[in-house]
C-alpha cells in the first residue's frame, strides 16, 4: 500500500491543488464566456436547440464509456501497472461500444424529435466516445498523482482549440456544425496532451489480472450517474419534444449559463478533494476536518456566486447574449436558485466516493431520481419557466435528503455540514444575492447595472463580515486556504 503523506503535507497538496485548479478554471471561465458571447451572436436558438436535443439523449453513452472506472482508479489504495493497462483497454472497449450503440439509436432519435437534420449530428459525435474512452485512464493517472498542472494544460488547451475552431466555422456560416466540431476537436486535443503528460504507453491486455473490484466500485457509481444524468436531461428531452428546437435553444442557453460555473468549479474541486479525502478516509477526525474546510470554500465561492448571478440575471444575459436573448433571464434566475443547492450538495458526492460506498448512493438515487424527474416534468405545461421552478424545488429537497443519507451510510456527522451550509447561505449567499438585485433596479445601461449589482453584493458581504464573528472566522479560513493554494 502506498504511504499516506503526513497531514500537513497532504494539506499543502490539497491547497496548492485547489489553487491550481481554481486558477485554471478562471482561465476556462474566461474562454467559455468568450465562446458563449460570440456564438450567441453568430448562431440561432434553433442551432443550439438541435445540438441540445442530440446531446441530451446520447450523452448517457458517455457514462457507459467511463463506467465509473476513472473514479475507481483514483480511489484505489494501490494500482499496479497491469491493472492500469487492463483498465485502459476496458475503457477503450467501452468507448467503442458506446459509439456503436449511439449510431444504432440514430433512427429513434430522428423519429422521436421529428427532425431529419439530427441524424448527421448523431453520427458525427459517435467518434468522441472512442476518443474519450482512450483518454479515461490517462486522465485518471494524472488525477491520482495530483498532477494538477498537467490537468490544467490539458483542460485549457483542449477548450481553447475547440472554441477557436467553433468560432471560425460559425463565422463561415457553418451553423450547428460549429458546435459539433468544437466537441470533436476538444476531445482530440485533450487526449493528445494527456498522452504527452503521462508519457505512458499501455501494453497488451494482461490475462489473469482481474478488474472485478474496479467494476464493482464503478458499477455502483455508474448506476448513480445514470439516474443523475436522467434527472439533469429530462428537461431538455421533454422541452425539445414538446415545444421544439427554438424553445429548447432558449432554455439551453440558461441551463448552460447555470452549468458553466458548476462544471468549472465542482468538477476540478472533485479532482482535488477525491484523492485527498480517499487517502485519509480511515482517519475520522482528519476526514471530518478536511470536509468542513472544503465545504466552506464551496459555500462561500460557488453558492454565493449563484445567489449573485440570480440577482443580476437580466443585465447579465443582456451583456452576454444580447437583447434578442432576453427570454433567457427569468429562466436563468430560477435555475440559479437550484444551482445554489446543487453546489452545496457536492460534498455528499465526495463522501460517497471517498468512503467507498457508491452503491449506497445508487440505491438512494433509485428512490429520489423519479421524484426529481416528476418535479421537473410537472412544470412542463408552463414551458421553460415551469420546468425551471420544478428543477430548483427538486434539487433543494434532494440536497437535504442526500446529506442526511450519506451521514448514516458513511458514518459521518452530517448535521454540522447541513447547519454550516444553511448558515453560510442565510448569512452570506442570500444577502449578497439581494444586494446584487437591488443594484440592478437603478435605471441604467445593462453593463452599469451589472457593475452596480456587483457592488451591492460586496456591500452585503461586508455587512455580514462586520456583524458576524463567525463570518469573519470563516473568511479568514477561506483566505488562508487561498494563500496556501497560491504558495509555491
Structure description:
This protein is an all-alpha fold. The protein folds into two domains: 43-210, no CATH class; 220-488, no CATH class. It is built from 20 helices and no strands. The protein has helices at residues 7-42, 45-58, 60-66, 69-75, 81-104, 106-113, 118-144, 148-171, 177-198, 212-243, 245-279, 284-311, 313-321, 328-344, 346-354, 358-378, 383-409, 414-439, 446-467, 469-486. Helix 3 packs antiparallel against helix 5 (81-104), helix 11 packs across helix 15 (346-354) and helix 16 (358-378) runs antiparallel to helix 17. The longest helix is centred in the N-terminal third of the chain and has 36 residues, at 7-42. The chain is globular. Keywords: Cell membrane, Membrane, Transmembrane, Transmembrane helix. InterPro entries: Poly_Biosynth_Transport. This is PST family polysaccharide transporter.
Identify the overall geometry.
globular
> What oligomeric state best describes the polypeptide chains here?
single chain
Would you tell me the overall average pLDDT? Answer: 82
Low-confidence stretches: 1-5
Can you summarize the main beta sheet? none
Helix content: over 70%
Order of helices and strands: HHHHHHHHHHHHHHHHHHHH
Query: In the residues, how many domains can be counted?
Result: 2
Radius of gyration: 22 Å
Distance between the termini: 28 Å
Name the structural class.
Answer: mainly alpha
Number of helices: 20
Strand content: under 5%
Number of strands: 0
Amino acid at each position: 500500500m502506498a504511504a499516506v503523506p503526513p497531514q500537513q503535507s497532504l494539506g499543502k497538496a490539497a491547497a496548492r491543488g485547489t489553487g491550481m485548479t481554481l486558477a485554471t478554471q478562471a482561465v476556462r471561465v474566461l474562454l467559455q464566456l468568450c465562446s458563449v458571447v460570440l456564438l450567441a451572436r453568430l448562431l440561432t436558438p434553433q442551432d443550439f436547440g438541435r445540438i441540445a436535443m442530440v446531446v441530451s439523449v446520447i450523452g448517457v453513452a458517455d457514462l457507459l464509456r467511463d463506467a465509473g472506472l476513472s473514479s475507481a482508479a483514483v480511489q484505489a489504495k494501490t494500482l499496479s501497472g497491469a491493472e492500469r493497462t487492463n483498465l485502459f483497454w476496458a475503457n477503450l472497449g467501452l468507448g467503442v461500444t458506446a459509439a456503436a450503440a449511439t449510431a444504432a439509436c440514430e433512427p429513434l432519435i430522428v423519429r422521436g424529435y421529428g427532425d431529419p437534420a439530427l441524424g448527421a449530428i448523431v453520427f458525427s459525435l459517435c467518434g468522441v466516445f472512442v476518443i474519450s474512452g482512450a483518454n479515461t485512464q490517462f486522465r485518471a493517472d494524472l488525477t491520482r498523482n495530483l498532477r494538477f498542472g498537467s490537468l490544467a494544460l490539458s483542460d485549457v488547451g483542449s477548450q481553447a482549440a475547440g472554441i477557436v475552431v467553433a468560432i471560425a466555422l460559425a463565422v463561415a456560416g457553418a451553423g450547428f456544425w460549429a458546435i459539433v466540431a468544437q466537441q470533436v476537436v476538444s476531445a482530440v486535443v485533450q487526449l493528445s496532451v494527456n498522452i504527452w503528460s503521462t508519457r505512458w504507453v499501455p501494453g497488451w491486455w494482461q490475462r489473469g489480472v482481474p478488474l472485478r473490484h474496479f467494476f464493482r466500485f464503478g458499477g455502483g457509481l455508474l448506476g448513480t450517474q445514470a439516474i443523475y444524468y436522467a434527472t439533469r436531461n429530462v428537461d431538455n428531452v421533454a422541452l425539445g419534444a414538446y415545444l421544439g428546437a427554438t424553445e429548447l435553444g432558449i432554455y439551453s442557453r440558461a441551463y448552460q449559463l447555470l452549468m458553466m460555473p458548476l462544471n468549472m468549479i465542482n468538477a476540478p474541486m472533485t479532482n482535488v478533494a477525491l484523492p485527498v479525502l480517499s487517502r485519509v478516509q480511515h482517519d475520522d477526525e482528519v476526514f471530518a476536518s478536511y470536509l468542513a474546510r472544503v465545504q466552506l470554500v464551496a459555500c462561500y465561492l460557488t453558492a454565493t456566486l449563484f445567489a449573485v448571478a440570480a440577482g443580476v440575471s437580466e443585465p447579465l444575459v443582456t451583456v452576454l447574449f444580447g437583447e434578442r436573448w432576453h427570454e433567457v433571464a427569468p429562466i436563468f434566475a430560477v435555475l440559479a436558485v437550484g444551482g445554489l443547492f446543487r453546489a452545496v450538495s457536492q460534498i455528499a458526492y465526495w463522501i460517497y466516493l471517498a468512503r467507498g460506498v457508491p452503491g449506497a448512493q445508487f440505491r438512494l438515487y433509485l428512490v429520489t431520481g423519479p421524484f426529481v424527474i416528476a418535479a421537473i416534468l410537472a412544470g412542463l405545461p408552463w414551458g421553460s419557466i415551469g420546468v425551471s421552478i420544478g428543477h430548483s424545488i427538486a434539487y433543494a429537497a434532494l440536497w437535504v435528503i442526500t446529506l442526511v443519507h450519506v451521514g448514516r451510510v458513511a458514518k459521518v456527522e452530517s448535521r454540522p455540514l447541513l447547519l454550516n451550509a444553511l448558515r453560510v447561505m442565510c448569512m452570506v449567499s442570500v444577502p449578497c444575492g439581494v444586494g446584487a438585485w437591488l443594484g440592478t433596479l437603478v435605471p441604467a445601461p445593462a453593463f452599469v447595472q451589472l457593475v452596480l449589482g456587483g457592488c451591492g453584493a460586496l456591500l452585503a458581504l461586508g455587512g455580514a463580515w462586520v456583524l458576524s464573528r463567525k463570518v469573519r472566522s470563516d473568511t479568514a479560513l477561506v483566505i488562508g486556504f487561498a494563500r496556501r493554494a497560491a504558495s509555491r
